[in-house]
């Protein structure tokens, strides 16, 4: 293993026993998630018609989902069971991997050659117009992103810069399903709606990372209904942690980044499977709040796992930031490669004090 500039890798270097002395990890999957289960029912029915005898295999949500799939005319019920009705393969028509929409094809504009695909959820960020796109060691620039046809047209080119999309994200709490008091702080889990819009991109010089300019983009907002874990702290706790309004956003944002970077240690996921929002005054909680959410519709079980292991997860997060030798934050601790806000603002010492205060009464 070669450690990279990431919070998780930093933590592993300082705590190697978390790799060498821990049992085999548990895989996180929520098989009752309708966004996961429905495409699998379609794919199964396309092989052999599904019968009631199969319900146990697919879990308690099965009957309910089958009737929905019937209504959508994807399956038809006959005496022998539920049949797949389409000519197409179920795996082509439905999104069997639950990645949230049809993948975007990356096509070389002049030759029509298909280079590869990008997940629908990532397309706005990675193959927007003007994006520098790497494919098998070659560099391409996106000429046009056609959202209707799910295609990105690219030209081979080697500009002396990389691109980085900037986005804005807001989040609404739909339902709080579980809540645990940690002293004055609250740890919650529930359903949320995340609205994300890629608004511009930065061009950054290769090697130095110097910003060369920002270009506006005209892309529609995307909404995602999913599950999230979140925590709130009170004004008294901010006082106790010596966090004044000037550094509050930076402290919350830094804690959010590091917590996302650390979650793969507790839930088998990649930091790119999860997202976060931190805000000094959230309209639903009316308090400083940090959210970490599953990047897939309906949730994928990561935020739920985070909720159940929150004390260990956030303790490891605080320890990882504190153990990092940098002065004011670096990619090994609180900076994130996927930050939609170009890692601004961030406050390292504030994040450590905030997490310490949050965890003071954690159970
Ligand atoms: Zn650092
Ligand atoms: Zn960020």
What does this structure look like?
The chain has 363 residues and is of the alpha+beta class. The protein contains twelve helices and 13 strands. The chain has helices at residues 7-14, 17-20, 34-47, 55-58, 62-71, 90-93, 120-126, 235-240, 245-262, 302-308, 310-323, 348-359, and strands spanning 75-78, 81-84, 104-108, 114-118, 132-135, 138-146, 151-156, 161-182, 185-205, 211-216, 222-232, 274-279, 289-294. Strands 8, 9, 10, 11, 12 and 13 form a six-stranded antiparallel beta sheet that branches. Helix 3 (34-47) crosses helix 5 and helix 9 (245-262) packs across helix 11. The two termini are 34 Å apart. The site of one zinc ion has 5 residues, from helix 9.
Strand fraction: 25-35%
Secondary-structure-based class equals: alpha+beta
Summed up, the helix count is: 12
Radius of gyration: 22 Å
Helix content: 25-40%
C-alpha termini separation: 34 Å
The number of strands is 13
Written as H for each helix and E for each strand, in order along the chain, the element string is HHHHHEEHEEHEEEEEEEHHEEHHH
Bound molecules: zinc ion
Unreliable sequence segments: none
Mean pLDDT, as a whole number?
A: 90
What is the domain total for the residues?
A: 3
Shape: globular
